Amino acid sequence: DAELAELAQLRPEDRQVQTALRRSAVHHLHELIVNGEAGNSSQSINSSRDRRWETRLYSQPISDVWRLYARSLHTRDTLADDSHVSRHRAGVGAEFKARDWLISADVTRLTKSPGDDKNRAGISLNLFNEINDLLSIRANGESADEALPPRASAAGIRARRAGFGITVRDNEVHRANLDVQRHNFSDGNRRNEWSANYTNRFESEYQNRFSIGVGLSGMRNSLQGTPYFNPSKALATDFTLAGEWLHWREQQKSLWHRVTLSAGTYDQEGYDNLPTARINYEIDWTASDLTEIRFALGRSMHPYDGVQDFRNYANVSFNRRF
Fold first, then answer.
1. Is 1's pLDDT higher than 80?
2. Quick check: 116 and 90 in contact, CB under 8 A?
3. pTM above the 0.70 mark?
């Protein structure tokens, strides 16, 4: 910051210096991030209606590398018998960001949950390291799995989660990801999940971007007869075509459209290999260098225990610095 202030005194009219000053000013602001999603499903093996809202409020940077934050997560799911599973988690955390490292950790408490989980504390940790221009790694863990199936929560079942991932990329044209996760449920179930995908951006211009992707993922569970969806073994394939185009741009303001189409298969042990599909339309509006809003609508098809489920969903993301 001292060097930047000195440059501003020496070259106050320089466009690059002015841009750097503005970015530094934005960097030292508070930040509010709100994400929400709502969906309706034709089957209720998970939930027929689901709602999720998460809010994060970050402090101004401390010593340029630390930020404190408060977060809140609320979910509400409607089950087959029209009963509701509502969970609310709130807490505080800290984020460290320097050079190629991004580390965050928080402590939260369930203030609303079925069964005896109320007031149960949870700890989460996330690490990301960009080793070089080609390779990056990530790791995460939660003592209270926030992706716990609503039927499991309704039955008083809890879970812990740990994951690790690696990304290999080449000039943002070629990108490959590999992720593994382990879930330990309190009913004794041990779930192992993995996913691998490759994306190739075959057209990239100022106003248009197109890419194709292929993916493979799998799941294995150690326990059967659980109240939540829990296949003994499953394998999924996926092919994705995505396109985005710039509607307009004016200095820091812009409006992008994105369309994603995907199709694949889901092979669950004990059932037929059935097709999957998804269509997603997204608008990304950057109102200024302080405000960004994203809105998406989509429809997906996925089988559960041999029965196709059709889900319509909408999600919104709001990011504001102040």
1. no
2. no
3. yes
Report which residue type is found at 322.
F
Distance, CA of 88 to CA of 93 (rounded, Å): 17
| DSSP at 65 | T
Q: What is the pLDDT of residues 10-24, one digit of tens each?
A: 776 777 777 777 788
Residues 6+ apart with CB under 8 A from 264: 215, 236, 237, 238, 239, 275, 276, 277
Q: Are 27 and 4 in contact (CB under 8 A)?
A: no
- Measured over the CA atoms of residue 319, residue 29, residue 27 and residue 146, the dihedral's sign is negative
* Residue 79: φ, ψ to 5°: -95, 180
Three-state helix/strand/coil letters over 112-167: ECCHHHCCCEEEEEEEEEECCCCEEEEEEEECCCCCCCHHHHHCCCCEEEEEEEEE
Q: Which tokens in the block code for residue 229?
A: 């969806």
Average pLDDT value for the chain: 92
For the chain, first and last CA: distance in Å?
19
Bridge-based pairing of strands 159-170 and 135-142 is antiparallel
